[in-house]
Amino acid sequence: MRTPVSEGPARMRALAAALPSALESGYRSGRELARPHRADGMQFVAVGMGGSGIAADLARGLVDAESRATLSVVRAPDLPKAVGPRTEVLLVSYSGNTWETLAAYGAAGRVGAKRTVVTSGGTLLERAEEDGVPVLTVPPGLPPRSAVGHLLGGVLGLLDSAFPESLEGRVARTAEATRSRIREYSRSHGPAAALAERVGGRLPFIYAESSFVPLARRWKTQVEENAKRLAVFDEVPELFHNALVGWDAISRTEAGRSVAILLEWSGESPPVRNSFRYLERLLASKGVGTARALLASDDRFEALLAGIALGDQLSLFMADKSGVDPYPVDAIVRLKASIGNPRSSDASPPRTGSGPAARKRTTAGRRRS
After folding, report:
1. 285 strand-pairing partners
2. What's the gap between Cα 5 and its chain centre?
């Protein structure tokens, strides 16, 4: 979908501002659709690419830290060999036409895994309805990267029973806190605009501790798609076993072309916090610009949403500075036109039954079975 250049920035800002409401809507729909789960732990595999995959990745940090479930994220058409009848596979494709996710849908069916589809339509929706697979539908017509609230909320709703207590109250509190932060972050003299000034024309390296690495990836992809700029992400403490050597050896001339953004959370352990400070000193000694982006809130979930909101606004201010329209992603459109959707036997799922009793679908508070 193309939007006129004059409308693109306003459209993307409106979509960024809708993040809290989208999160609440997606969570409600996901919770309505969730299956009963065993008390002895649950195994989930989420398959998704691009803006669809990142939603499951963002959920993973919270799931790993606070629930009794395991959530793996696959960005490929092939499923791990361990996937079987005891695994629930979440097939997340905003468009419903992502060939990798369609292939994984078929593969999950063949090994007898439980399947749940999260999509706005397309072939994936058609196949799921034919097979009686539960479908969480999200609103159509959005750039996939702007559907992150619906998708993230939906995934968390589907996994709600894995947490010690329902996320319902936290979702409401987090949404309200995020609305306030978006108003602050979107100001022309606010923290996102100041961070965009700090980045300038340099290559941003975005660093986060391991449980917030999906957030660092989200910042990278938002910079790439909205600002049409390259970016890099990495994790602490892993980078101290590899990237540290590169930074130590870099010339000051090359260092001047880079800037490091440190995504930091108050809940980090002291060793991780000390690692960030060491990295900051090393980069400063090489002439690399650094900027701290503090994830507001002691609550991990609120910090995550604050980080999504701040990164979205940063990428939009960077687009403004570069004079580019954040809405279109022409390179992706050209790629899809060039290669089409690869077809293989894996992309053709088996038919496992249909009919009104087998079909289960929800749309923002409406359920049909």
Report:
1. none
2. 26
pLDDT at site 342: 59
Q: Which of 289, 312, 329, 307 shows the shortest CA–CA distance to 223? A: 312
Q: What is the DSSP letter of 162?
A: G
Q: Kindly report the pTM of this predicted structure.
A: 0.90
Q: Could you give the CA distance from residue 4 to residue 306 in angstroms, rounded to a whole number?
A: 29
Give how far Cα 108 sits from Cα of 15, 86, 102, 116, 177, Å: 33, 11, 10, 10, 38
Reduced to 3 states (helix: H, G, I; strand: E, B; else coil), residue 202 is: coil
Three-class secondary structure of residue 341 per DSSP = coil
**Cis peptide leading into 237, omega within 30 of 0?**
yes
Domain ranges of the chain: 8-166+330-368, 183-322
Alpha-carbon distance 158 to 36, whole Å? 10
8-166+330-368: CATH topology: Rossmann fold (3.40.50)
Least reliable range by pLDDT among 40-49, 111-120, 141-150, 357-366: 357-366
Determine the Cα–Cα distance for residues 180 and 188; give it in Å rounded to an integer: 15
CA distance 313 to 328: 17
| Residue 184 to residue 157: CA distance in whole angstroms | 28
Q: Which CATH architecture has domain 183-322?
A: 3-Layer(aba) Sandwich (3.40)
Task: Output the six-digit token pair for 345.
Answer: 């036997």
Alpha carbons 102 and 238: distance in angstroms, whole number: 33
Q: Are 248 and 236 in contact (CB under 8 A)?
A: no
CA dist 278 and 68 (Å) reads 34
